Protein: Shikimate dehydrogenase
Organism: Chitinophaga rupis
Amino acid sequence: MKVYGLIGYPLSHSFSKGFFAEKFQREGITGCVYENFPLTSISELPALLERTDLYGINVTIPYKEAVLPFLDEFSPAAEQIKAVNCICFHAGKRKGFNTDVIGFKRSLLPLIKPHHTHALILGTGGAAKAVMFVLEELNIPFTVVSRSAQPGTVAYEALDAAVIEMHTIIINTSPVGMYPQTDAAPALPYDAITRHHLLYDLIYNPAETLFLQKGAAQGAVTKNGHEMLVLQAEASWEIWNEKQ
């Protein structure tokens, strides 16, 4: 039996286990199982890595950075972002990947139009770094927005109508608006949003955050994070099973 799984803590609301169970059944994949491995400390990881039946691991909060010292190689994205959410075992080596990058890029590309020339990234965490990597690959200039102005970022207070008009892609990587605080939204001048804007929220619960509702009310194209989640999980499966 080939074992795949997810490490993180807590894992009570994880997406991956249900996704892979359904995928294995739907596609007739046998001899494989996907399990949750809730690690209360990263110090529990070495014992898990000793398992000889382990073929691939996904990594979620809070260990996307903590796993780095346990790995031998990294994909270019994982190397630059310094965060890993997929580990592949091959030829005695452990290689780290960042499939958030793959999932975000594959879900964003079909939505990009010629007038989508500049982006605002709301938030500065690990997810924001994955978004930055993709926008750099696509040669789309971006501005990072944080709660207080820092080197390389602007504060929400600096976002006026002129800034919104110029930045026709707005990506929320922050947890603002996530369940159960569904009545919150990033502090933007939403009246300046138009039908030329694309609003993308990495949150998928609720399916339509207040951020997306406000954008849709102005005629903007909107997208939540569910497809990105599915695509990054599929990318993990591709990585674990590709001929290396």
Remarks:
- DSSP finds eight helices and twelve strands in the chain.
- The first strand starts at residue 2 and ends at 8.
- The mean pLDDT is 96.
